[in-house]
Amino acid sequence: MPFTLSDSLLIKRDALLRVLAGYGRVAVAFSAGVDSTVVAQAAQLACGDRAVAATAVSDSLAAGELDSARELALRIGIRHEILYTTEFSNPDYLRNAGDRCYHCKTELYTQLEGITERLGVDVIVNGANVDDQGDYRPGMQAAKEHTVRSPLIEVGLTKVEVRELARHWDLPAWDKPASPCLSSRIAYGLEVTPERVRRVDAAEQFLRQRLGIRELRVRHEAHDLARIEVAIEELPRLVATELRAEITDHLRSLGFRFVTIDLEGFRSGSLNAALPFVTLQANLGQSPEK
Predict the structure, then answer these.
(1) What's this model's pTM, rounded to 2 decimal places?
(2) Sheet holding 123-125, edge to edge
(3) Is 242 exposed, middle or buried (0-12, 13-18, 19+ CB in 10 A)?
């Protein structure tokens, strides 16, 4: 039985379909997260074969995410395109200042703009929701510069409502934890490299499999230090003698020299707390270990 929506959310759902239908032919920037999955489903319902989902692939994409995107696109019934983006060739991206996401999204939207004729689309859309407007999101500026539309914002959908809508449409991503790109785990000011993002990916994959925890982060700090974030209630498990030694040994085998546990627990966007310090360092001409 479909998940029942409130009257107010039914109104927003119908508004979302009308907005997308009004765009005409659309390309959805599709990461397979819950937001872009809902937009892809809505685009398929509203536009049919005039909609396409486009997934960007680079070193910053976590293992398994491309397969997830393919499976979701097939389930939705939307045409699916793969883009191989080259943000790792951009020095402004690699230096990993506070605007890294801007350069990543600029690369994605520029590539999408270059193939709109081949894809047969008029409008590019993303999965930004209302809650994203209250966070530090330099990628939103890139969307504005490339006239990328944000239909979830246009109809006033919050993150909670997006998840409810995904559940209503029986999309398996409805309860998927947020999974920003791997580069977001690298401390600002520390150069983003394929080696570092692969190290983070391998560490997170190991911890998920070993601990059975869906939502966690391994933050890559300077001097090859790993800072593990899990929910507060999971912290005692990590410091149990046998498991602690196993985690430390494995992460060191991946190339980390130091392994730490963040006592504040998991919190999305925790690296943003360092942005004022990173900005000050940049102004003084300083930088952390590259």
Answers:
(1) 0.90
(2) 79-84, 51-57, 26-29, 123-125
(3) exposed
